[in-house]
Amino acid sequence: MAGRRAAPSATADPRPRRGPPRRRRRRYASALEAGDTEAVVATFAPDGYFREPIGRHYTHTGTPALRSFFTSCFSAGGGIGLQHCAVTDDGTRCAVEYNCVRWGEHDLPPQAGLSVCERGPDGLLAAVRVYDDVEGPLARP
């Protein structure tokens, strides 16, 4: 129904979690926004991976592969601007709903997506899986 919102679940706590998981999530998001390859890579475990939305064949595992992938992503003149809409976080895994609104120097019409992040025991990202259909300014080779 237009203009109506579902009532929140009685068992759901609408307050955002505080503490290390939230700070780590912000560190990754800030580095992505800034286009800082080294800062993004530093949020991942040494064997962590990033899986692109187009499938498992486009998974970048380990520090060298992540560095290469994010360097390519940021080659459009800067970072990736996301508007975070909703976050569900249990301290180990989180799902982030977002709108992509900028890629490098290019403003984009808002394009919806979802990322699922999993942290290892040390708090570093073990996995980031992205589900979206964002049309970025870069052409795939």
Task: Give me a quick take on this structure.
The protein is α+β, with helices and mostly antiparallel strands.
CATH class: Alpha Beta
- Biggest sheet architecture: 6 strands, mixed
**Strand arrangement across the biggest beta sheet:** 2-1-6-5-4-3
Fraction of residues in helix: 10-25%
**And the CATH topology?**
Nuclear Transport Factor 2, Chain: A
Pfam family, one: SnoaL_2
Protein name: Nuclear transport factor 2 family protein
Region (Disordered): 1-25
Domain SnoaL-like: 26-100
Kindly list the characteristics that best describe this protein:
141 residues, alpha+beta, Nuclear Transport Factor 2, Chain: A, 6-stranded mixed sheet, 6 strands, globular, SnoaL-like
